[in-house]
Specification:
The chain contains 9 helices and 10 strands. It has about 220 residues and is α+β, with helices and mostly antiparallel strands. It folds into 2 domains: about 130 residues, CBS-domain, CATH 3.10.580.10; about 90 residues, VC0802-like (2-Layer Sandwich). It has a 4-stranded mixed beta sheet. A 4-stranded antiparallel beta sheet has the order 8-9-7-10. A two-stranded antiparallel sheet has the order 2-3. β8 and β9 form a beta hairpin. The longest helix is centred in the middle third of the chain and has 11 residues. The two termini are about 30 Å apart.
Amino acid sequence: MRVKHILLPLKKLITISADDTLGHALQLIEDNGYLSLPVLEGEELLGVLSKQFIFERFFYGEESDRDIYLQRSVRELMVTKLPVIKENALIEQAAEKFFLQKLRFLPVVNEEGKFIGIVTQKEIFKKFVKIFGLRDIRIVVGTFDFKGRLAKLTEVISKSGGNIGSIIQMDTEVMGIQEVVLRIKMEKPDQLPKLLRRLQDNGFLVRDVETEEEQERSK
């Protein structure tokens, strides 16, 4: 999935101007439940101003009068050096940027470098939950890394009434054993025990099973 599929477009953004006061910016941030806001001039992204930065600068700065401080302009405190991501980048690439850098959001640009919106951590997490089927049955199996084993695994699941939502294969680095994490939906819930038996009969070691109900209880 591409970033352009989950971005919040420019026309829907709540933004501030570089000439706005810190007081006005802080009010907008708090009224809308945000942590930061993009600073725009027309449709050009100039920077970002965060609630945390406003408070930190007041706490550690020399200005002691709160009212006077909040009359300062956004331009004085905004951060202008921002990483951006292109609209056709994968959401995994956006997730990596969030992981490596302390970001509230990522500005998104088109192929011409024009600012077109932002992508947030929340939207990426929502998509990952959907992509990985985190509300489906979770099954972890171990298998030797032989040619055709993954194909056999999916065949057994399909013939047992299971539909695979996601599948992740990881190397355990132990004697060629692979660990496969599956998220599946069963056509009929009572078919799950039959599926688990068939997996074991075909040489797969079932290491862990969690139904949707068990996952809810563990939260």
